[in-house]
């Protein structure tokens, strides 16, 4: 079949409309700052692994090392989830910039990139930690969390994933920083010499931490999505704006990741938790209490983060246009 003179021009026009001047697929909004997020998340994971190793090695007895491993494992799993998601988001962002943005290929690339983080983390744990059953549990759960995080980055809306990663990193950092303020807060909430006063104070300290962490998560998610929207508008003035469900999901994202981390912990790290609980009756009570506290904290962060992001987004909406207001007859 003979090509018409206009066929090549039409094909060229379609190709030019399919990608913009930066090699990005038209209609696809990229997540800004993915290299920085990937570096920060990998650094946070490395810091968590190093601090856990130092705590275990400093233990004088094997029983103490076992208890410390069970206590530190949730933080390592959360860091691995965020690191896998951040590094995978950086990988799929590079593909999108080269005009490769098929949904299936994006998901496969995200999982494969998360798997790279998983293998690197497991190798680092087995290489630097003592060779025992505890080390294998830490390596396995860390690798599983990083792979799951990579799968999360395969979602179609990259800015929302970037907002979840940024908000989760800020939330994890805030929780570590907040630990320095716990002792003064115990005194503020009336912790005394009785066990009842200590439990009440601990409950209010935990609620305060969860509430503030949710606020941090919601504000960071909103700030990131606002940055992504302004950046997309500068590149393409006709770029579609994100709707309120994106802000809702981004604000709730850190809490959802904490819940996923708890599932990974209870499935992959169950043997370690059981061993730690079997040390004594006090250890069993402590592990049960910590598990309940982690779930409560994740739920608080989820709902407070989502509500904060939605309120912040709602405050940016202007009044309705006069032409859009209903008439008195209507």
Question: What descriptors fit this protein?
Answer:
78% helix; 330 residues; disordered N terminus; 0% strand; mainly alpha
How many angstroms does the end-to-end distance come to? 59 Å
The tally of structural domains comes to: 1
Low-confidence stretches: 1-27
Alpha-carbon Rg, integer: 24 Å
> If helices are DSSP runs of H or I spanning 4 or more residues, what is the number of helices?
11
What is the number of E strands?
0
Portion in strands: under 5%
Helix content: over 70%
Instruction: Give the assembly state of these chains.
Output: single chain
- Give the SSE order as H and E letters: HHHHHHHHHHH
What's the mean pLDDT score? 81
Q: In terms of structural class, how would the helical and strand content be classed? A: mainly alpha
Q: Sheet with the most strands?
A: none
